Amino acid sequence: MLALASAFGLLRARRDGRLRVRTKDDAVRLSASELGAELGERATLVQFSTAFCQPCRATRRVLDEVAGMVAGVAHVEIDAEEKLDLVRRLEILRTPTVLVLDAGGRVVRRAAGQPRRADVIAALGEAV
């Protein structure tokens, strides 16, 4: 049992915060009205958070920095508790969850957990 729990912990730590492509998200497009904010000119970083989520604060700082570095990129933070219909539709299971949207609002990358700055920048390269 201890070995199984350790293996699960190592796997989760390795996958946490990785921005990956999910094929069923390819057809998902989000509009400004669904997000409650305007989409970025070139791309949008959407963060689903909750009030008591500690990694959400660090994720907010990373996404704000990246959005400030790249022209035409917006960062939108959504309280998951307020937008439960959207959370269910997108199958958000934990916070923070980050979606990278292209200029048209199509989801190109998704991460559950706190992403690294370099991964976010690389994902923006695909969206832009």
TrEMBL record:
Domain Thioredoxin: 41-121
Matches recorded under InterPro entries: Thioredoxin-like_sf (IPR036249), Thioredoxin_domain (IPR013766)
One Pfam family, short name: Thioredoxin
Record protein name field: Thiol reductase thioredoxin
Organism name: Kitasatospora indigofera
